[in-house]
Write a structure and sequence with these properties.
Cofactor: (6R)-5,10-methylene-5,6,7,8-tetrahydrofolate; FAD
CATH class of the largest domain: Alpha Beta
Strand order of the largest sheet: 3-2-1-4-5
Mean pLDDT: 96
Helix content: 40-55%
Number of strands: 5
Order of helices and strands: EHEHEHEHEHHHHHHHHHHHHH
Strand content: 5-15%
CATH topology of the largest domain: Rossmann fold
Protein name: Cryptochrome DASH
Organism: Flavobacterium macrobrachii
Pfam families: DNA_photolyase, FAD_binding_7
Number of domains: 3
CATH superfamily of the largest domain: HUPs
Function: May have a photoreceptor function.
């Protein structure tokens, strides 16, 4: 009897999950496992939680949904807690598994954990098989090796669009053979060291985790409202659910994959229309790919103050008071404050808002950009390690921006994007 473990991480879905499909095809039975890695719930060197309560709640909802979907196919989800390099081998021994299937990691800490798990499994004569499941374009299909990927996005995009193909998404498995798996036993937020924080009623969306909700959101944004056909015109919006796709939270935890979105987008274009807006969603998914490939290329450099450019930047002496005012939305700059209050009370902020508050922290306060990135890591419901640190480095002038320091004139931005003060009034009148 060939038994394998499927180690779920940020790939909490059945559709387009190569890891799961390959495990099923190479095994007589599988045991789906999720490990609450204790290192994801510590306080970082910057003084912020690695996972805040909005994202933790979203994760718990996603795991409930994954377990439900697995059980509908004859399986279920086993929950373990601790360090993966300790806990995964215990499950391997318990079930006499010969292989562990998992998604491939690219960022520094995650890769270290992956290597430690592999080392422990090797001692048990158990193989770790990893698959790239997070990007639109597969790394193997790119027209350059990872070390030769251009450091300017436009160069990467043009060549990739011209010379690379997007693979078809995998279908969800029809059935999964597993031994009997005990009912789902999730830790509470309190056990994770967090308190429940409800999403403020003014939020753009009451985000709920899980693949089922992700697909429902896609169907709403594409087929029910056809909002995708105006995405390019509305994507800089600030108020309401439909100015942008809002797929990011589900993408971050892998409740939905970029290729699944792409396949559905192609169906939409065939049925209704293909225009600049439908293309623009692919363009944004390509940015997401790019930061992931850049993280693979530069690894730990993305977490250093000098970034991938090894560039000295002028940073003021750390000012805890100024940082806290920024966090609490009390800087006195109304556009920055409105955005930071939205983040604090909902775990979300528009892309336009993110660029402005980051520019303010880096260019006006001249604080170390990594404190901003670490606060976002704690606070964002859609935190993705590659996109978050890649974007912050970009705004700080030490990442992939060929123009260097990108300064936002916040008064002009607020006039351009919040002309009638609708957004600022929504968040500052409380």
């Amino acid at each position: 009897m060939k038994t394998s473990i499927v180690w779920f991480k940020t790939d909490l879905r059945l559709h387009d999950n190569e890891t799961l499909i390959k495990a099923i095809s190479q095994s007589d039975e599988i045991i789906p496992v999720y490990c609450f890695d204790e290192s994801n719930f510590v306080t970082t060197e910057f003084g912020f939680k690695k996972t805040g309560s909005f994202r933790a709640q979203f994760l718990l909802e996603s795991l409930i949904d994954l377990d439900r979907n697995l059980r509908a196919k004859g399986s279920g989800l086993l929950i373990i807690k601790g360090r993966p390099e300790v806990e995964i081998p215990k499950i391997v021994q318990q079930y006499k598994a010969t292989k562990v299937f998992a998604k491939k990691e690219v960022s520094y800490e995650e890769k270290q954990t992956e290597a430690k798990v592999q080392e422990e499994l090797f001692k048990l004569k158990c193989e770790l098989k990893i698959f790239s499941t997070s990007t639109l374009y597969h790394a193997e299909d790119l027209p350059f090796s990872i070390k030769d990927i251009p450091d300017v996005f436009t160069n990467f995009r043009k060549k990739t669009e011209k010379d690379a193909i997007i693979r078809a998404a995998f279908d969800a498995p029809k059935e999964i053979k597993s031994p009997e798996i005990e009912p789902l036993q999730l830790p509470t937020l309190k056990e994770l060291g967090l308190n429940f924080e409800p999403i403020d009623s003014r939020a753009v969306l009451q985000f709920k985790g899980g693949e089922t909700k992700a697909i429902a959101r896609l169907n709403h944004y594409f087929f029910e409202t056809k909002c995708i056909s105006e995405y390019k015109e509305t994507r800089n919006g600030l108020v309401g659910a439909n100015y942008s796709s809002k797929f990011s939270a589900w993408l971050a935890l892998g409740c939905i994959s970029p290729r699944f979105i792409y396949d559905e987008l192609k169906k939409y274009e065939t049925q209704f229309e293909a225009n600049e807006s439908t293309y623009w969603l692919v363009f944004e998914l390509l940015w997401r790919d790019y930061f992931r490939f850049m993280m693979k290329k530069y690894n730990s450099k993305f977490f250093q103050q000098s970034g991938i450019q090894d560039k000295g930047i002028i940073v003021n002496k750390h000012n805890t008071h100024q940082l806290q005012e920024w966090i609490d939305g009390k800087t006195g700059v109304d556009f920055v404050d409105a955005n930071m209050k939205e983040l604090k009370l909902t775990g979300f902020m528009s892309n336009r808002g993110r660029q402005n508050v980051a520019s303010y922290l880096c260019n006006d306060l001249k604080l170390d950009w990594r404190f901003g990135a670490a606060h976002f890591e704690q606070q964002l419901i859609d935190y993705d390690v590659c996109s978050n640190w890649g974007n912050w480095a970009y705004l700080a002038g030490v990442g992939n921006d060929p123009r260097g320091n990108r300064y936002f004139n916040i008064n002009k931005q607020s006039t351009d994007y919040d002309k009638n003060k609708k957004y600022r009034d929504l968040w500052l009148k409380s």
